[in-house]
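@channel sequence for tomorrow's demo:
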Amino acid sequence: MSSSDIFIGETIGTAVLILLGGGVCAAVTLKASKARAAGWLAIAFGWGFAVMTAVYISGPLSGAHLNPAVTLALAIENGGWKNVPIYWAGQLLGAMIGATLVWVAYYGQFQAHLTDKEIVGEPVTKAVEAEEKGAGPVLGIFSTGPEIRNVWQNLATEIIGTVVLLLAVLTEGLNDKGNGLGVLGGLITAFVVVAIGLSLGGPTGYAINPARDLGPRIVHALLPLPNKGGSDWSYAWIPVVGPLIGGAIAAGLYHVAFA
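structure tokens (generated this afternoon):
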């Protein structure tokens, strides 16, 4: 794969990932959305299908890493460090593009949600609580945040979830001693993401991907959203550092147990 193929593939793939993943968060959250209050099950499956779609789109160009933790784990395992900066740059840019497209697709809903003073019920209570902690009322559409703020628990949750993801990614090919799982790999990875979301997503919203969280958080900070509140930069390092640590641990476990 050439450097340009890697960059283009990761940019397009990560943009699609965030467009569909952030899109389901917007659909469930925003006032005047037909899917409002559809719940966590919709979000978990939405992100899983987002991963599947992005993997199949970008796979032929870049191998569909779509996640700096995946790129790091693979580099540790096979020593391919040369293209790591290119992968990471494409992933971050793609995440920012995808988040911007979510805003475009839901522009009217964002305006209605953030200017309506009479929204009642739990979503507003959650938004007010989040805003008091430095997070704006729609930040959850763009990035993750904890239900209970405990640095070490939040960091551990992201590490654990990413270890599960990367062990699944790294061992997929071992289930077929020929050429690996091929086109089935994207589908299996998608279901792993759904499983992580359903089982481990409750505490932090399961970023398990530094670009998925950081890129949209930057976009949230830059977008001209009315009454959007803060971007919660005090928490932002956890969904970046946690997945990278998880990726490194998974690569080490794979090398010891499977290689």
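heads up for whoever presents: The chain has a mean pLDDT of 91.
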